[in-house]
Amino acid sequence: MKSLVLAAGYATRLYPLTKNRPKPLLDMAGRPVLEYVLDRIQGLEAVDRIYIVVNERFFSEFEAWKAGYRSPKPIELLNDGSTDEEDRLGAIGDIRFSIQKANIKEDLLVVAGDNLFDMELTPFIRAAKEKFPHASMMLYDVKDLNLARQYGIVGIDRQGKIISFEEKPKEPESTLSAMGVYLFPKPVLEKLETYLKEGSPQDAPGFFIRWLYQREPVYGHPVDGVWYDIGDLDSYRSASKVFAQTKEEK
After folding, report:
1. What b/e readout covers 130-160, taking b as 16+ CB neighbours within 10 angstroms?
2. What is the phi/psi pair of residue 247, to 5°?
């Protein structure tokens, strides 16, 4: 399978840190955030190539980073051509762009480039493959209804099948959050075009999940461990403290 890291956003909620630097390349305990994401993907035997979709504005910065990063798997940068918030493609638009640009015809693991987590991906991939040809996503219990308002919140049945999904709900019905890690089998990727032709939102992948689970089974896989979605300055500072402490302990 192939893996796609979404790194083309502009992270305006993190200004001024991201005014002149992309969020995935922000420092996190001495390393770019992106490298923690790649650590997890590199450990997957099934992934034979990694794509990172970025924007035109920060493309040269990603090129400079890539020149100094040693990877055991081939990595390719995909420039989506956007230059600011006004012309960005959105996460779903970037997935579609990447599939077309790289001519991806295999199953695809999609990971948000601002994800920080300490759990291995192999158990998720193994569980997700048992649900093929249906899509799967990693879930994390944030255990706080107020915090849940900041995320895509998911409801699942006893078999793990998604029965509800809402982006940033005002009144969340659960605290089970989408982590920004998705496994889309090839038959599911083919339905992305139908979704977009209907004029559906191109922003967060959760919008596609919400559309998809109403038409066919989609599965959620709760995981335990440490997870940070670097969405604002507070979450960035909190994650920095935790990862700096972890580094010292090692």
Report:
1. ebeebbbbbbbebeeeeebebbbbbbbeeeb
2. -65, -40
Q: Which of 91-95, 113-117, 119-123, 211-215 has the lowest mean pLDDT?
A: 113-117
Phi-psi region of 178 (alpha: psi -120 to 50; beta: other; left: phi over 0): beta
CA dihedral 114, 115, 120, 124 (to 10 degrees): -110
| Model confidence pLDDT, tens digit, residues 110-143 | 999 988 888 999 999 999 999 999 999 999 999 9
Per-residue pLDDT tens digits for 19-77: 899 999 999 989 999 999 999 999 999 999 999 999 999 999 999 999 999 999 999 99
* β-pairing verdict for 176-184 and 108-112: antiparallel
Helix and strand tally (H, E) in the chain? 9, 13
Entry pTM: 0.93
Q: For strand 152-156 and strand 162-167, is the pairing parallel, antiparallel, or unpaired?
A: antiparallel
Rounded to whole angstroms, how far apart are CA atoms 209 and 211? Answer: 5
Cα gap 4→2, rounded to integer Å: 7
φ and ψ at 174, to 5 degrees?
-150, 180
Helix (H) or strand (E) holding 50: strand 49-54
Structure tokens at 226: 């440490």
